[in-house]
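Illustration 12: Amino acid ABC transporter membrane protein 2 (PAAT family).
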Amino acid sequence: MNGWATFHSDLLEQSPLILMGLTKTLQLTAIISLSGLLLGIVIFYASLSRNNTLRCFINAYISFFIGMPLIVLLFLIYFGLPQWGIKLSPFQVAVFGFSLNVAAYNAAYLTSAYNGLDHAQMEAARAQGFSPRQIFKLITLPQVMRLSVPALTNQVIGNLKDSSVAFLIQYTEFFARIQELAATNFQFFKAYLLAAIVYLALVSVIVIAARLIEKRLVIPGFTS
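Figure caption equivalent — predicted structure in token form:
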């Protein structure tokens, strides 16, 4: 009981810092989810180009960033770029590194959804004089976005969980504050259990929101 009392006391004392860390985690997750989605759409659009060189470059980009461990990418930017005279803050490194990584995954999800479409509708649009950009904006993108909701949701969940590695580049997000709490009283099990509960609660909120979105955006004729 004394251990729990000590932990509870330290938790209350450090709660402002922990809440600040949680805010930073949510902020980072929201930013990289949005930037990763927008960049992923751009990469996906480029992958549809008839230019073989551009398509090869896009495929190389996706393979490179999906294949590289995220922590290696963050370390490469955080510790490597200063040797070239480029120094970024931990937050900037996290946003930049995560966005490059997340965009590659999102582009792959959108491509998979695109491959499942009936391409006859794109041919019909071309026959009616639609430009490639109009076809992408009005026909392709709305459908692949709707079909990719489950995959994109899983990516947002992954972004939330992966944000915990940002403490390794000195970004004081939620898990970094939990580490400080655990180091204060050496109640590691209690501190990490608290972190697990908080992450689980946040993931549950994302899943519920995604299910509601998925129901509203379901495409007739497609089943999950």
